[in-house]
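> call design_seq(struct)
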């Protein structure tokens, strides 16, 4: 009788242990994340070594998690700046670090994007201004629903990004 109780207890403990191991290992299996490829546009010191074409930008492709708002995702990726690998390939940005998107809307093929004041902070030179505008515009115009881009800072479009 004692032997039977002992075997039952051992069987229950083994069952709990096996169940726990199955739970630990099976719950860690994750569904693959669906991705999309977007392009971010930067200046490139190898494509334009003398920096003569201020508004010429070149794309780097990035694989990102699929999003319901790919235009917003692309802008977020642009604002991160070039990755280390992209920097090795000559990509560089004229956009200040830490810039935030305040809003993005698309109506009648016109994207209107509003940034915080950091976008315009300490900007010097018309070449830098042209590069910033080109980076933002081309990153958004990769999407077929966008033909024109209006950039604003805190809702202002007139007195922004001045050299």
């Amino acid at each position: 009788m004692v032997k039977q109780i002992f075997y039952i207890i051992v069987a229950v403990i083994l069952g709990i242990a096996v169940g726990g191991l199955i739970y630990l290992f099976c719950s860690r299996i994750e569904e693959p994340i669906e991705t999309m490829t977007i392009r971010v546009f930067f200046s490139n010191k190898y494509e334009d070594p003398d920096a003569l074409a201020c508004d010429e930008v070149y794309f780097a492709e990035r694989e990102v998690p699929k999003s319901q708002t790919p235009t917003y995702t692309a802008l977020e990726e642009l604002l991160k700046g070039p990755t280390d690998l992209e920097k090795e390939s000559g990509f560089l940005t004229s956009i200040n670090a830490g810039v935030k998107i305040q809003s993005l809307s698309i109506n009648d093929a016109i994207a209107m994007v509003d940034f915080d004041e950091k976008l315009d902070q300490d900007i010097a030179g018309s070449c830098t201004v042209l590069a910033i505008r080109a980076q933002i515009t081309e990153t958004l115009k990769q999407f077929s629903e966008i033909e024109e881009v209006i950039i604003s800072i805190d809702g202002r479009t007139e007195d922004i990004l001045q050299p």
